């Protein structure tokens, strides 16, 4: 269940990545059309104003079409096959759903508590009786929730029925058409339920908004803490997205709300805490600007003397990336594994810092690094609100210093192995999210995360698209035999080779990862990792047909398929010609397959392998592999 929730959270992040850029574009449009900063050229009606207004209009695309964006984005992250088609199916189903709602409210609006539906005009920046326009369709404003529900339904239908074989006379309805046909009829009761229940949900959301806004510093602290501490689980997406893009605090989300009122805030001399009282939840970019650099400084201060130079070379770029762009992954996941308690401490400190800033009147949209914060806050609002931002810097630096000493003391007291404190024979390195997950999986299994078999097993599992993408798993003498649900999720061969695989053989959804003679150990570790992650693949640890075992082993030791020119059976021998004898393994490797094997190397790149009386059967299997 946790894996499914994490996957859902990650899928929601697919469309979210577009909002940062769009937000900066809109903010710059507001900034450059501010007459206070740019004088009369920014007044309405001027060419300057018209140009930037046009650019801003483009930036508003993702905010004005949030529902469609999430409807497209979720299938990209969750569909097991043909993701592009799944996205198309989801969009048309979502539009159908809203057309059904509009038609039902037009005919029976009074029964659902919305009389005169067809006469209500949709006005920008108004509640509009809970209605909105989506792609020109007047419908109920279900925010991103309606989009998510429709997208999840379509993804389920797509994964289950996209490949379903229909009778020949219905062949034209296979694939996406069949999925949409099913979704079409599902959307009718869903639209009916929405018409009946959503107005009541909207009333509940309004009450929740009043509660959250009225919760003061307690609500702000809890939100900031959860949004930070849950990052390792991936569940933080479920915390901030309803606030940032959903209706948790205001209709449409806090980021669009802030950007819509940015010019108004810039022109006002009233404190931000008065004119933007609800905008206190999106302050979590502050830890990226103020705390992460001091964490890096603590790592440097506690590094071994002989590793300080190497440590600084890694930490300085990571700190700058955090401060400027708001990307903290290289730092976060490095100490998450080495010292999880530091992550909890960091989450407490960041939540407390943001809450103190909130108490001093800071409001705004600050989810990125300094570039994003400056464009959407400091630059457009500096003239009338500089005192608030000066206080923001003072509080941030104070908490940065506190964080430095807390981390330094804890690292030294508990001897946490943070960057620069590794063993002398180990290089200083930062850990990314993928490596963190691999190490945690090994730790959960009670094994050494540096065990070579575990390292390869976790790498291959990830490169094959994860446990959920594997339907069958077995091995032969030197190969992992894998069947996958979606071949498009399998990484390029080069990444397998980078993790010590000799090669990868593809046959549609069936793959063979040539691992070598330690394939049993790798298979065993993969099996355990899949069981822990909830995978339901059919796993076989029994040996395959012995002739296949021997044939695949010989092919691999001869340098692989591409190195074998021809092969025949000669009594008790496998006779083959190879292109490059340097690629052929030593004789001792052949004996690992069977002690009785003898290898005779002749002129003209001919190699004879004495295998016994079943040479014919072995050669037959080799020819199938070739």
TrEMBL record:
Main location, first listed in the record: membrane
Cell compartments where the protein resides: Cell membrane
Protein's membrane topology: Multi-pass membrane protein
Any one annotated GO CC term: plasma membrane
Matches recorded under Gene3D superfamilies: Glucose permease domain IIB
Occurrences of domain PTS EIIB type-1 (ranges): 454-536, 548-626
Tagged with keyword Kinase: yes
GO biological processes: N-acetylglucosamine transport; phosphoenolpyruvate-dependent sugar phosphotransferase system
Record field: transmembrane: 12-32, 57-79, 91-114, 134-157, 178-199, 205-226, 238-258, 281-300, 334-353, 386-407
Signal peptide start and end residues: none
Origin superkingdom: Bacteria
Residue ranges annotated for the PTS EIIC type-1 domain, each copy included: 1-423
UniProt-annotated catalytic positions: 476 (phosphocysteine intermediate), 570 (phosphocysteine intermediate)
Record keywords, A-Z: Cell membrane, Kinase, Membrane, Phosphotransferase system, Sugar transport, Transferase, Transmembrane, Transmembrane helix, Transport
Any Pfam family hit: PTS_EIIC
GO MF assignments: kinase activity; protein-N(PI)-phosphohistidine-sugar phosphotransferase activity; protein-phosphocysteine-sugar phosphotransferase activity
The name this protein goes by in its record: PTS system, arbutin-like IIBC component
Source organism: Lactobacillus amylovorus subsp. animalium DSM 16698
